Amino acid sequence: MLEDLTAAASSPTAWPAAYPRGYAVVDVETTGLARDDRIISAAVYRLDARGEVEDHWYTVVNPERDPGPVWIHGLTSDVLEGAPLFRDVAAEFATRLEGRVLVAHNAVFDWQMIAREYARARGEAPVKQRLCTIALSKELGLPLPNHKLESLAAHFGVVQQRAHHALDDARVLAEAFRPSLRAAAAGGVRLPLHECRPLTEWTDRPRIGHQAGPGGYRPASWRPSRKRPACPYPNPGRYEPGKRLKQGMRVAFSGDTSVERDLLEDRATEAGLHVAGSLSRLTSLLVTNDPDSGTSKVVKARQYGTPVVDEAAFGQLLGDVEPASEG
């Protein structure tokens, strides 16, 4: 399939009418991976309908807190001290995103960080859909050794100059996305687009034991867009590879999925599983299409030894879930 797509991408072809009219390739660097972490730099490459670069934009952002892993992103407190706050760049950022599909590598992470920053600024990012380049590479069947950005870049001969610098990461992703998009168009591949749902509520009320931080920032509470009914079954423990799932098992999800996340979670709930928003030592199973990513759930799964399966394997397991033990 890959050879056919590559050959087709280099030949004239009618562009799919259903494809988006423009893209915003985004990368954000952050103080960490948790919900209360902040964006410290952001970059956007705007692309037209066929992946050609229109312009690019970059900014550093004062996170109003410790910058986190400086050894990764290189942005120290001294560098960020005089940087604008997110609310000061929110309008300009929005003009770069408006009317476009947000494209990112592990897009659910970038989207969630952006959505939280806009919620803090009492605003909303003008993004309706996102596209994850990890999911697209899987749709195309690219022979990558893993799902890191550097592997995708190497596949298309894109040279990275400054890894973990938002502007260079966004450039690299834009250059790798262009041939991916053209191959998808040539092969009639359906783009893995997902809805971007804004946060429904943000509160300044600090959690017990937490005080307001620099600049008045308070650790905050995020509420999901809807509540799921409590799982009626006790947790039977961890999933054992090769065996069946059992009702009551706690299942967590990380990263983008080909099936809309809510639908996948609904299926899990209907099967009698407990859908968990976070990962702990009690989690029975983590479902992710990118086990090499550095998301907090994947990192914790490694630490706790939590079993991990991809979306396809989980779908098969959902077809035969063992009933909960009586009594």
From TrEMBL:
<dbReference type="InterPro" id="IPR006054">
    <property type="entry name" value="DnaQ"/>
</dbReference>
<dbReference type="InterPro" id="IPR012337">
    <property type="entry name" value="RNaseH-like_sf"/>
</dbReference>
<feature type="domain" description="Exonuclease">
    <location>
        <begin position="22"/>
        <end position="186"/>
    </location>
</feature>
<dbReference type="GO" id="GO:0004527">
    <property type="term" value="F:exonuclease activity"/>
</dbReference>
<dbReference type="Pfam" id="PF00533">
    <property type="entry name" value="BRCT"/>
</dbReference>
<dbReference type="Pfam" id="PF00929">
    <property type="entry name" value="RNase_T"/>
</dbReference>
<keyword id="KW-0378">Hydrolase</keyword>
<dbReference type="InterPro" id="IPR036420">
    <property type="entry name" value="BRCT_dom_sf"/>
</dbReference>
<feature type="domain" description="BRCT">
    <location>
        <begin position="243"/>
        <end position="321"/>
    </location>
</feature>
<protein>
    <submittedName>
        <fullName>DEDDh family exonuclease</fullName>
    </submittedName>
</protein>
<keyword id="KW-0540">Nuclease</keyword>
<feature type="region of interest" description="Disordered">
    <location>
        <begin position="205"/>
        <end position="243"/>
    </location>
</feature>
<dbReference type="InterPro" id="IPR036397">
    <property type="entry name" value="RNaseH_sf"/>
</dbReference>
<keyword id="KW-0269">Exonuclease</keyword>
<dbReference type="InterPro" id="IPR013520">
    <property type="entry name" value="Ribonucl_H"/>
</dbReference>
<dbReference type="InterPro" id="IPR001357">
    <property type="entry name" value="BRCT_dom"/>
</dbReference>
